[in-house]
Hints:
single chain; 299 residues; alpha/beta; 8-stranded mixed beta sheet; two-stranded antiparallel sheet
Amino acid sequence: LVAVGTQSATTCTLEETLLPQDRCAHVEHTLLQRRATLSEVTSDFFEDGSETGNSAVVPTLDTYVINLDTRQDRCKCMALQLADAPQAVYRQAAVVESECPDLKDDINSLYGKRDHVSEKSLFCSNYKVWQLAANSSKADFIVVMEDDVFLQPSFWNATYDFLTNCPHFDYVTVDSWKDVNQQMDAVDICPTSLFQPPQTRPETGYWGTQVQIIRSTFLNTLVQRAQTHGMGPLDVWWQLHVNEGRAFSWQPGIAPQAGRRNVGIMNGCSSDIARSNIEPKAALLDVRGQAAMPRLQCM
């Protein structure tokens, strides 16, 4: 998908069979909505290098989307949602667990009768992102997305506000959920909804890793912990192995997972993206007037 916007019009052209032509109007409408929201972000964070009058340093981000080669419907939906993301966006092809031969099984997290093969494949895909970003990214933070998340219009505004005003974290899952007694885990270290799971009984903890935000200086720690403990379901693994006071569930209500109740399907996205496949960069927008940043590239 290549979308080029001006103040007067949005031109939608289709490449690589990203969307059928009859959905072009939906694309235009969605991109205009997202540009309106993004303009709020850029006016708050980019104008004069300050945040609404404060001398705040603008955090930099790189975003990675984990996507199975066989789920191009999901990739196209994510490309639409991220067309106006105010930073670089890359695709990480989902890989099978055998692509991480240096990682053993984390027996402590691989409990129950879930699909452990798919869980380990997703972990391996995340591990590849951690390694790649640790060695190549110059950004302050890394955002890792699974390809079945629906980003709300306020996503980037809320994310930049969180990163600017909450320095006391290294790792958060965004809109992960807990079924019972969540308020007992609330922590009061930032002006937002942060929850720290108990360090025991992760089966009663927080589910979902559809969006993660990771401080770049923490990436090598994640890699080292993976090499020490092995791989398992990521939403259980982080609560067991990096839950040391700077890892949290952040729940602003901006990134629900497809298939969860009360989550709709946005225009231009197939309803089939809610079908689970746990296993496992260009449209242009330059918000700072520099060279165009990478966009999510589908096959």
